[in-house]
Input
Amino acid sequence: SDPGEVAMTTLLQSCLFLLVLSNFLLLGTRRVAGMTRLTAFQGLLLAALLLSLDHALLAGAVLLIKGALLPGLLWRTLKRLPADALICPARRVGFGVLAGMAGLVFSIWLDGKLVMPLGLYPPLLLPTGLATLFCGFILIVGRIKAITQVIGYLVAENGIFLLGVPLMTGGTVWFELALLLDVFVAVFVMGIAINHISDSFASIDVARFRSLRD
Output
């Protein structure tokens, strides 16, 4: 086989493996700063994955937005938050890791059950996308800090992005670029909202909204 093709296949599989690993690290990390670094790392992996599939233009956009701009916005937000808002409870982290394992097992099982056109998805791409999507949902539902839920939203979008990789032909590339722009704007607005919440209230723990009374 062509050495170049073998190298690209190896790069693709390596990126998928590291994405799954980063999902578990995200679920097992209590510090928001570490989660932000992992979010940037996932952006770099997605860019490398797209390069392995000869999507150089989209890889550059992903590297800029997911690998630099969005993590930069998160870092800017972290600097304005109190220290106690940057550490997650250990109990929720443990449940998150277990849920992530269950999500990965379910993704692999579902990959074997779904009937797809031959060659539509490269090996392991579909279960990795599904597992990443589940990881994002677990962070959104399982974590109680607003900033970690923003990170969960980004991770879930990474999973959706992976599932859309086979559709990146012709004009659909521009659809994906538009989707990236939407995510950028959404996270920008959410970052501003968190800043205003932290300026106005002593805590950004969303669970405390339950104590509100009319």
Observations:
- The radius of gyration is 18 Å.
- The first helix runs from residue 3 to 28.
- The CA atoms of residues 103 and 134 lie 6 Å apart.
- The chain has a mean pLDDT of 82.
